[in-house]
Prior knowledge:
Layout: H1 20-31, E1 39-53, H2 55-59, E2 73-87, H3 91-97, E3 104-115, E4 118-128, H4 131-141, E5 145-147, E6 149-153, E7 160-166, E8 173-179, H5 195-200, E9 204-209, E10 212-219, E11 226-227, E12 229-234, H6 236-241, E13 249-264, E14 268-269
Parallel strand pairs: 4-5, 4-9
Antiparallel strand pairs: 1-2, 1-13, 2-3, 3-4, 6-7, 7-8, 8-12, 9-10, 10-13, 10-14, 11-13
Amino acid sequence: MNAPMLPFPLAKAPPVAAGTSGLNTARARMLAHRGEPLLVADWERTLMIHYEVNPVELARCVPFPLDLHDGRAYVSLVAFTMRGMRPWLGGRLAKWLFRPIATHGFLNVRTYVIVNGEPGIYFLTEFLDNALSVRLGPPLFGLPYHLARMDYRHDWHTGEVSGRVTDPVTGAAFSYRGLVDADDTAYVPTPAGTLTAWLMERYTAFTANGDSRRLFRVLHEPWPEAAAAVKVREDSLLRENWPWFAEATLVGANFSPGLRDVWMGRPHGVK
Length: 271
């Protein structure tokens, strides 16, 4: 199998800059199971907005042990477009069958956990704008999908990004505007050992649906990223679902043009 490729050549750092050992461990964990990967897709124009939150309040919402960085808890909002999702096997027919759910927007609200010594993420919720995917995600992967209206304008070559995600039932919204680097060569993997690498380079997702505890793994080269200056214009969507977000502190943001051919694995039970 070929390794997933970045969307453009890196200009300032090799793909292993964010830490070879973590990527190799992720690859070994995924390929230890037969039939992996299950799916492949591009993750495009990705903005990650990071908050420091109260760990006690956060722990009440998370069914796995929190992974803390220097004793601090974080939640990240990840706004991106998934494009061209298709099965790893099956050729053109399988790709055609996946067309109704192949491309759509996401706003993932995720935090950081560590289970049986394996660091990963846990989705507090995932907003997306594809009704069919919303119906399929929970039973297949245990994912907390919720339908939303989305308007993303992540045209980073202009130096500006913006977005708005709205709950169609309540009208609560999350909206933002940010400044990013318009130069392709500015986007490189972050050095290992930094908070940014700790937040961005995660290759396992843990999910919970009722009494079912599962995980699935992903594999991609380190994110090519640069810091973004972001202003959150409305956050009622967050405060409506998690009142403790009113006391959260926005600590930074990162933008990436994205990743091509991200491997996504099958769901496995968590012991």
